[in-house]
Amino acid sequence: MMVKPKNSPICPITAALDVLGGKWKVFILSYLAEHGTLRFGELKRLIPKVTQKMLAQQLKELEEAGLVNRRVYAQVPPKVEYRLTAHGQTLCPVLRSLREWGYLHREKLGAEEVTCPEVSAEKLIAVE
Amino acid sequence: MMVKPKNSPICPITAALDVLGGKWKVFILSYLAEHGTLRFGELKRLIPKVTQKMLAQQLKELEEAGLVNRRVYAQVPPKVEYRLTAHGQTLCPVLRSLREWGYLHREKLGAEEVTCPEVSAEKLIAVE
DNA sequence: TAATGCAGGTACCTTTTTGAAACTATTGAT
DNA sequence: ATCAATAGTTTCAAAAAGGTACCTGCATTA
């Protein structure tokens, strides 16, 4: 996580990356945007490679950032639900466009594997 | 950088984060989107906190990912220009929406500093 | 009485990332 | 002969991030 230089006007990109810059945060936010409400274990199953520790940690940071809401039910075994806060919902367009681009980029990757490795015109050296 | 599990269909988010997930990449891409063409030193000045090493490394990775084009002029002292490739340009909407959200989020942060620290309604414990 | 399910917490360790500082190459200007 | 300018690279060390394995609490169920 980037440290916020307190009392200095930070650029918008920094402000965004400060709260989104964990290894799993965008995944978590994406799934919450898609499913609305998810329990801890459901998120864990949706993101198989995340460890319990990391999932808990990233969720806590997202909660502290005001993007995710944590609702604890007073029952045993425990039940905790996560959802986007109103402010978290404002991320949906960003998440959508990122996801869309990822889709596009993945297509591009797949396409490049089959084309012959010709030198792209952009690699040529320019002489002034 | 996340490792791409070769020959396994990766989700779009992973595909995107694989190439965008460096500490400085989004900054670099943003500035290139904004300015069109930038030399190494210009980028360095635009992002004061990045070190030479990191800037060079992230640029190299962006180039390898096909998002950034590197043009070397055969002159001394060296002159190298960076710009977005066509594929890199497809990121512009993503960068724009991220930047816009960052702007919004920064406003929110500023607003919270002055409001009294009341317990948000979302913090209440639910009982089923 | 013991095991089960859920949502974590924690200590310890390894890996990855990042930073600081010095070094390189080349040529024209002083 | 030396310096300046640009775009890096290299080495070593520090810091951050991440993973593993194990621990907790407690009502319910077998």
TrEMBL record, chains A, B:
Record-linked PROSITE patterns: HTH_HXLR (PS51118)
MF terms (GO), sorted A to Z: DNA binding; DNA-binding transcription factor activity
Superkingdom of source: Bacteria
Record domain HTH hxlR-type: where: 11-110
The entry's keywords: DNA-binding, Transcription, Transcription regulation
The protein, known as: Transcriptional regulator, HxlR family
Taxonomy of the source species: Bacteria, Pseudomonadati, Bacteroidota, Cytophagia, Cytophagales
